Amino acid sequence: MQGMKEIKRRIRSVTNTRQITKAMEMVAAAKLRRAQEAAENARPYADKIKEVISSIAAGTRDFSHPMLETRPVKKTGYLVITSDRGLAGPYNSNLLRLVTQTLKERHASQDEYVLFVLGRKGRDFLLKRDYPVIEAVIGLSDTPSPEEIKTISTKAISMFADQTVDKLVIFYNQFVSPLVQTPVEKQLLPLASEEVLSGPVSVYDYEPDSETVLEVLLPKYAETLIYSALLDAKASEFGARMTAMGNATDNATEMIETLTLQYNRARQASITQEIAEIVAGANALS
Amino acid sequence: MAMVQVEIVTPQRKVFQGEVDILIARGVEGELGVMAGHAPLVTPLKTAPIRLKRGNEETLIAVSGGFLEVRPEKVNVLADTAELPEEIDVEQAKQAKTTHENALAGLNKNDPDYSIHKQALELAEVRLQVAEKGRKSM
């Protein structure tokens, strides 16, 4: 039987831990709500851009643009969105596992791809394993603004435009519900033409002309896609953290119960033993 | 007179929604005014104030990296940034203006940073202009 003092100390320590995990759970829940709102607010903008592009595509004959054309892939760019901080359950590890597995299956050598990383966890993990990370952004705020990722997204898109990479793929945790986040892989560029061409269509005049408008809009659309993915990933991060911390709180509660039971048993045992000793002593005297 | 529905959105939020008599914006091809019943049109916008007139009132909105979509029943402005006069931090804009002016003074026109500073300077100037003229009645 463990010493009573020892058990008491452990109960206190677990109670402290539970307080912290409980607080983190509530903070994550509040941030999750804000992240979901941000994702919601970004939607009208993305939908509109897509609608205008679809309309141009539908209204223009022999419509083409480098960003819409699939070319032979010699080099692929991967954007990986992870979090800066841990304590979010399997959030980062699931995603990074998907990334490393996909890279291993698809590419024979590291010359065939480059990585753009958002988030400290992903950057540290991938750099440590000598992956070709060419650009990384860390320290993004909880509800990031488009400017915060402007550098990295512009770089990725311009590398596609000048044909340094022939394909851009994005990895992030898709937000399904606060309890479920799935690591997904999505092709960013070239834009999937069936996706661009579907959707509502309107007929417009273009000023100065449709090509120029498209020239401005397509990179913007690609940036918007990256930004939406980031917002989605942020919502997932807080969802994952909330779940992980909720579980930790439950586990701590369970542990406190077990320890309290142990403590009471030890206390009773020591009382019983004391009584037995007193009785034995009294018996010896009489 | 018929009014026209206007909505101004950025990736982060909806900045303005409402009815106006006329919207005046600076497109890449020049200034254009949109009133109710305008033909459908799409054009990129320059970094400049958008003027919204309603009755005797005029509101300016500082817009950068935007484009304008005109539809028969509605006008949408999609922009990288858009701010109402009261949202602009004048001190910050003044500071940005000085910083970028100084940066530009030391740069060659062919320098890749030149256009970045140029754009930032333009935005700061537009912000100041909007903050100053803001809302007015005629």
End-to-end Cα distance of chain A, whole Å, is 33 Å
- Tell me how many strands of chain A there are: 6
The main sheet of chain B comes to: 6 strands, antiparallel
Structural category of chain B is alpha+beta
Helicity range of chain A: 55-70%
Strand order, biggest sheet of chain A?
3-2-1-4-5
User: What general form of chain A does the structure show?
Assistant: elongated
Query: What overall geometry of chain B do the principal axes of the alpha carbons give?
Result: globular
What is the string of SSEs of chain B from the N terminus onward? Answer: EEEEEEEEEEHHE
Largest sheet of chain A: 5 strands, mixed
Give a nutshell description of this structure.
The complex is a heterodimer of chains A (286) and B (138). Chain A is α/β, with parallel strands linked by helices. Chain A has helices spanning 4-59, 91-106, 120-128, 150-161, 193-197, 210-285; strands at 76-81, 113-118, 133-137, 167-177, 180-189, 205-206.
